[in-house]
What we know:
about 425 residues; alpha+beta; five-stranded antiparallel beta sheet; five-stranded mixed beta sheet; 12 strands; binds adenosine-5'-diphosphate
Amino acid sequence: xxxxxxxxxxxxxxxxxxxxxxxxxxxxxxxxxxxxxxxxxxxxxxxxxxxxxxxxxxxxxxxxxxxxxxxxxxxxxxxxxxxxxxxxxxxxxxxxxxxxxxxxxxxxxxxxxxxxxxxxxxxxxxxxxxxxxxxxxxxxxxxxxxxxxxxxxxxxxxxxxxxxxxxxxxxxxxxxxxxxxxxxxxxxxxxxxxxxxxxxxxxxxxxxxxxxxxxxxxxxxxxxxxxxxxxxxxxxxxxxxxxxxxxxxxxxxxxxxxxxxxxxxxxxxxxxxxxxxxxxxxxxxxxxxxxxxxxxxxxxxxxxxxxxxxxxxxxxxxxxxxxxxxxxxxxxxxxxxxxxxxxxxxxxxxxxxxxxxxxxxxxxxxxxxxxxxxxxxxxxxxxxxxxxxxxxxxxxxxxxxxxxxxxxxxxxxxxxxxxxxxxxxxxxxx
Length: 430
Ligand code: ADP
């Protein structure tokens, strides 16, 4: 139980810390990248405006100039370049005229999908290299008269690469810190739970000791009542006989509660070990049916049993018998007179060795909202009804514990007013 709570606390802590870390990383990275991106956009725009002003005179004079740079320089990272076109679309001046990157930029320009004053990051592939270029365009004009157009670009491949590597580093750091916070969370959860675990252990030990100590006086009481009832020379009035009989019933109920409490207290402390051996499950089931038969007959409930001839399993015989008794006792208890209770034991399917034990009744049933809770200790759907029927709310938790200790499970399928079906699945190789 504590291991489960510790795991849940650790997961909760990791998810919380992980979300904060992720948020922090994303905000830091995005704001950093956005700042640099905007800075480059501004640089490119400033450069475009500067060159547009310088080239205005050339366009007015209709002078065509030779390029300023050779291609290799234009391909260098951080390098800025420009192209100036006149109104007829003729290239009149550029800083990088030849093949390679400028040629690709030319192609992009020809597509004409760049917007004025809005630099965009564009990727070009050239001889297996990817170039990232911040590209923009501006009309070259003097007042309302347009003389041409300038295209300006800046090669930011290296910077882009740095940011990509920064992204990987951030992702790696995130994973490392997530691992560290999970580890720290696990250790902290263990430390926080230590005192709770100690006091829980003390309570459990007290409960186990108290129930154990109560068993002896109870059995002394029971045998004393038996002795008085059996003493033929004793002159007890019919009234006293009745009182004695009631006392006997109450002592038996109390003995059952004490024994159930002891089972659960010991199971919590893992003091209770299963005594596994090979036995015939069908024989044990038949015996349990015989035990429950008088109770069923007293309510005119029809008991049915369907199973193969024999199923040999390796389990704790006493505990499996206890589990069946709990389910059958409940089925009879919570089924009105003239009802039906059926026990079905079968191999789950041909291929698997799993065994299914199904206890079905057509009694009062259990509402869906209650179905998950009935396996909790002391939980009873209708406390008053359960108490009059001798219920304590400890039966199903013990049944669940037995099934799980054998590596199996228990579930309930039920409809209020229609009946309940408890299915216990046990692995075949138990
Ligand atoms: P109890 O000793 O009260 O029967 P259990 O732990 O065995 O305690 O069962 C818990 C509650 O589940 C019961 O009080 C009852 O309300 C409900 N329950 C168990 N079995 C059945 C059943 N076959 N039909 C209807 N209700 C059931």
